[in-house]
Each structure stands twice: as structure tokens, then as C-alpha cells.
């Protein structure tokens, strides 16, 4: 079984709803320029509108594959973007900031997105939500790291399907830090903090800054 197919089954409705909210918020049209840091073409296929999207990743996940005419892919790091100030209508990131590294790396990532985007949309899963979205496991992320290390393979959907090695589990734990509301506010002080809810609970946060023209 492909773990990505399972994720798609569970998460696609949330992603679709989120992308439609993004399109409404920024009034997307064919002339809107978007820098998607750490993303793929997947999210943009969920939209009926077709903004001009630049996908930026540490290495291109699109090598050897065709991209739609409105989508380009470049290689770079989100903590040091090689673009001018306010180069894009929107700097966009979906479920990435929790993976970029420690506090200094997260601060650099947030600072760079705020610098190159006239508008900002950064989503990240809420640590307070009872399901860890990368593992698809309830409550596990609230346990001490030592317990997580022992249990991930046995009590998470990711562990059941992927059967990760101890090294892969260690990489996941080292590279994943779910944020709370206070952390995200501190990283994006000039942004509005929105909450996505499920069953009345905050599932994820979105830091949003509108371009001056849309305020």
C-alpha cells in the first residue's frame, strides 16, 4: 500500500478547502504571482484558477516531468531566498515550516517569506490538535520523544504502512517540530493568525498578510 495514497484519501478534502480559501483571500487570477516554498504541483491542481506559480525546493521533485505552463520549478532554500524584496504577489507555504530545523532556521524561513512576498500565506499543523498529521496517529506527538521513538512504528498509520527503520524514525523526530499559536505569532508578527478547525478543534494555523492593494 502506498502511504501517499492513504494521506491523499484523508487529507485531500482539507487541502481542497484550504486552497479555495487561499484563492478567495488573495483574489487569484492568471496574473497573480505565487512563490510556493517547499510545495509541489499537487495543491495547485486543486484550484480552478491558474496563478503563475514558482515551486521552490531543496531539490526539484519535478525532474523529468512536465509541468503546466503556469508552473515553474526552481532549486533553492527557504531560509535564504534568491529573490528581490516583494518579488511575488504572495509567498506561500503549506506544512513546511515545522520541518526546516531549529528556532533560528524557522526564524530565517519566516523572515524570507515575509520579505519576498507582498502577501503571505503560511500554513502549519497545530500542535494542540489530537492527531499528528504526518504520522496519522492520535496523541503520539504529545508524548516525550523517547516514547515516540519506541511507539511510532507500532501505533501510527505511517509506521504500519512504511515500516520505517530506526534511522528513518530518528530523522522524522529530528526534522519535525509542530508549532503552537504563540510560536507562529512570534514568527509572523505582521500577519493575521487564522485557524482551521475540525470537530470544533483547531487543526492547523495559517499566518496571512494581505498585499496593500487588497487591504
Structure description:
- With 215 residues, the protein is α/β, with parallel strands linked by helices.
- The protein folds into two domains: 3-133 and 176-214, Rossmann fold; 135-175, no CATH class.
- It has helices at residues 3-26, 103-116, 145-155, 157-162, 166-175, 181-187; strands at 33-37, 52-57, 71-75, 88-94, 117-125, 131-132, 137-138, 192-198, 201-209.
- Helix 3 (145-155) packs across helix 5.
- The protein is globular, with a radius of gyration of 17 Å.
Provide the fold topology.
Elements: H1 3-26, E1 33-37, E2 52-57, E3 71-75, E4 88-94, H2 103-116, E5 117-125, E6 131-132, E7 137-138, H3 145-155, H4 157-162, H5 166-175, H6 181-187, E8 192-198, E9 201-209
Parallel strand pairs: 1-2, 1-4, 2-3, 4-5
Antiparallel strand pairs: 5-9, 6-7, 8-9
Provide a quick synopsis of the model.
This protein is an alpha/beta fold and 215 residues long. It is built from 6 helices and 9 strands; from the N terminus they run αββββαβββααααββ.
CATH class of the largest domain, anyone?
A: Alpha Beta
Shape: globular
Compute the CA-based radius of gyration.
Answer: 17 Å
Percent of residues in helices comes to: 25-40%
Q: Biggest sheet, in brief?
A: 7 strands, mixed
State the domain count: 2
Based on the model shown, name its key terms.
215 residues; alpha/beta; Rossmann fold; seven-stranded mixed beta sheet; two-stranded antiparallel sheet; 6 helices; 33% helix; globular
Amino acid at each position: 500500500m502506498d502511504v501517499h495514497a492513504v494521506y491523499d484519501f484523508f487529507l485531500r478534502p482539507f487541502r481542497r478547502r484550504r486552497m479555495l480559501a487561499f484563492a478567495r483571500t488573495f483574489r487569484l487570477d492568471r496574473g497573480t504571482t505565487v512563490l510556493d516554498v517547499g510545495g509541489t504541483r499537487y495543491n495547485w491542481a486543486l484550484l480552478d484558477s491558474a496563478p503563475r506559480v514558482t515551486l521552490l525546493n531543496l531539490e526539484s521533485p519535478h525532474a523529468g516531468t512536465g509541468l503546466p505552463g503556469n508552473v515553474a520549478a526552481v532549486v533553492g532554500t527557504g531560509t535564504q531566498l534568491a529573490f528581490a524584496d516583494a518579488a511575488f504577489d504572495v509567498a506561500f507555504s503549506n506544512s513546511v515550516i515545522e520541518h526546516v530545523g531549529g528556532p533560528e532556521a524557522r526564524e530565517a524561513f519566516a523572515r524570507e517569506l515575509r520579505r519576498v512576498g507582498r502577501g503571505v500565506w503560511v500554513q502549519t499543523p497545530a500542535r494542540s490538535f489530537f492527531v499528528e498529521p504526518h504520522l496519522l496517529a492520535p496523541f503520539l506527538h504529545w508524548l516525550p520523544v523517547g516514547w515516540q521513538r519506541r511507539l511510532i512504528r507500532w501505533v501510527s498509520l505511517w509506521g504500519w504502512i512504511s515500516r520505517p527503520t530506526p534511522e528513518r524514525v530518528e530523522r522524522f523526530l529530528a526534522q519535525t517540530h509542530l508549532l503552537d499559536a504563540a510560536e507562529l505569532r512570534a514568527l509572523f508578527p505582521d500577519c493575521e493568525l487564522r485557524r482551521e478547525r475540525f470537530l470544533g478543534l483547531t487543526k492547523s494555523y495559517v499566518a496571512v498578510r494581505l498585499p496593500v492593494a487588497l487591504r
